[in-house]
Amino acid sequence: MAWIESHQELRDHPKTKRFARRLGVSVPTAIGHLHCLWWWALDYAPDGDISDYDAEDIADAAMWDGDPEQFLQALIECGPGGGPGFVERDEHGMRLHDWDDYGNEHKVRQEAAERKRRSRERRRLQEQMSRDGHVTVTGHGRDGHGDVTLDRTGPDQTGQDTPPNPPKGGEAAGEELWPDEADPVVAVAAHYRERIGLLSPALFGQFEQWLKDGMAPELLMAAIDETAAARDDDRITRSVDGWLKTIVRDWHNRGIRTLDDLRRKRQSHAMANGPPIQGAPNADAYTTVDAEAVKRWKQMFADEYDELEVSR
Asked: What's the Cα-to-Cα distance from 214 to each of 113, 182, 218, 246, 265, rounded to whole Å?
């Protein structure tokens, strides 16, 4: 059953009294007409936009038997001090004033539907990956690097260089596995699939947690890009997902939450320490060794240096 908020202050509000005076009716009668209009809007103008209706439609909706134009003008002009009345009219049309705050049923239904839609998408995504992921790749299989775990219930797919992408469609005809990339976790998962390959349900859950912890979706995508680049350069000698997690955890621990944070950190580090050393997930934590300092150290501790060279 649809409903709206009705506050007790409406009875004594100056706007209500001005509205009643302009119509020549009592305050209780004016309140009744207002509620009839609002109840009608729940069904016929759920977003509060009444631009498509004329004065007669609005008067009829409010069960006003008098002059429709008088009723509409009273709704618009009853605001004290030139403020908005119960209806606002401008060059864009007409809207019920503050409908987003008080037409609660429409908002609640929209939010509930959105939550259910996202829940269905995430559950379907995880089930699809779990069902179709006969090979779970936790690293890159090229040149013997990385870890490949076989699901013995599915076809043996060893020997392929890159993990298979999950199918684009669901079981129902026309369903998209990535139906709404406006959802941050779905967008990040889609980016992982495009740049790296098959995404495990466990990593999908990790993406959700990182987003809840305040990591921006664009930052997670940047971490995915850096991981893909490291894999392509054969710099990863262990799990691809492990490499990705190391990058994200390092950024998180250093207070990096957005791409702007990352850029500022790297610019500050570059100005203070010179270019970073490549080859590790947290490469920018290392700096280039001062060659002159090494030379002086060798001269001062020649015996120890020779012993170190022999021990190697």
From this structure: 24, 17, 12, 17, 17
